[in-house]
Amino acid sequence: MNKPSLDIKSEAKYLTRYAGAGMINSAVGLGTIAILTVLNVNPISSNVLGFAIGMLSSFLLAKFFVFKKRSNTKHQIKRYVAAFTIAYALNLFILVATKDRLPILVAQGISITTYVVAMYVFMRYYIFTPER
Hints:
- The chain is an all-alpha fold.
- The chain has two domains: about 15-70, no CATH class; about 70-130.
- The protein is about 80% helix and about 0% strand.
- The protein contains four helices and no strands.
- It is globular.
- The chain starts with 7 loop residues before the first helix and ends in a 5-residue tail after the last helix.
């Protein structure tokens, strides 16, 4: 059985759209937190709502803009939640493992990068696969 070859051009398009969607999603999530904070909403509630809206935004951007998959939404949402849980746990694991060994901003950067890469791999090869 032949392995499918990696199409660098297609992958570059996905990665470019993923980076753009990530910037938009960051603005949506952080913007939500900022607006709620200015409105004197409890900081924990602001954070939870910001992340919840950010997760929804991330899913929708990935589905319709990055990977352009219009069907199987229910199936994709289940996979997205599972992937998010794993990627976020990996993020926290990396942060805990590095926070006392590296400057905190470096540890945060490594853990966030781990999350971003893991989510791309999950989205590309598990959530929004060609047959899904």
